[in-house]
Automatic annotation (TrEMBL):
PROSITE patterns attached to this UniProt entry: RIESKE (PS51296)
InterPro entries tied to this protein: Rieske-like_NirD, Rieske_2Fe-2S, Rieske_2Fe-2S_sf
Name of this protein: Assimilatory nitrite reductase (NAD(P)H) small subunit
Keyword RNA-binding listed: no
GO MF annotation, one: metal ion binding
Domain named Rieske: residues: 6-102
Organismal lineage: Bacteria, Pseudomonadati, Pseudomonadota, Betaproteobacteria, Burkholderiales
Matches recorded under Pfam families: Rieske
Any one of the GO BP annotations: nitrate assimilation
PANTHER family to which the protein is assigned, alphabetical: 3-PHENYLPROPIONATE_CINNAMIC ACID DIOXYGENASE FERREDOXIN SUBUNIT, FERREDOXIN-RELATED
Sorted UniProt keywords: 2Fe-2S, Iron, Iron-sulfur, Metal-binding, Nitrate assimilation, Oxidoreductase
UniProt xrefs under NCBIfam families: nirD_assim_sml
Coiled-coil boundaries: none
Length: 117
């Protein structure tokens, strides 16, 4: 399926070393993180440990520290660093002219796609 990019915010709207949340109607929120290099990453706002809100964690380099039990989650993969194990969902993201885009097909998975064909 081709990507359907949708602008969700500006890079400048995301706190440096912090995150901004994109709400979804029926599914858990998506957290968009910004590191000190102005790189952005999108992960499900749920820690793979016990579901902590990663958007409230502290970003450092390419990781975010979960606010609940301090697991370190890699922003580019969504996976915990050793010795912890587990991954949270990551989302496609792109930046153009200072705007952050997410793929609507990933944000709102189409159910019953076959029926619509
Ligand atoms: S819920 Fe994130 S470290 Fe426990």
């Amino acid at each position: 399926m081709s990507q359907q990019w949708k602008a969700v915010c500006n890079v400048a709207d995301i706190p440096v070393l912090g995150a901004r949340v994109v709400k979804r109607a029926t599914q858990p929120d998506v957290a968009i993180f910004r590191n000190s290099e102005d790189e952005v990453f999108a992960l499900l706002d749920r820690c793979p440990h016990k579901g902590g809100p990663l958007s409230q964690g502290i970003v450092f380099k390419d990781r975010v520290a979960c606010p609940l039990h301090n697991w370190n989650i890699q922003l580019d993969s969504g996976c915990a660093t050793a010795p912890d194990e587990g991954c949270t969902q990551k989302f496609s993201i792109k930046v153009e002219q200072g705007k952050v885009f997410l793929d609507m097909n990933e944000l709102q998975p189409v159910s019953g796609e076959a029926a619509a064909a």
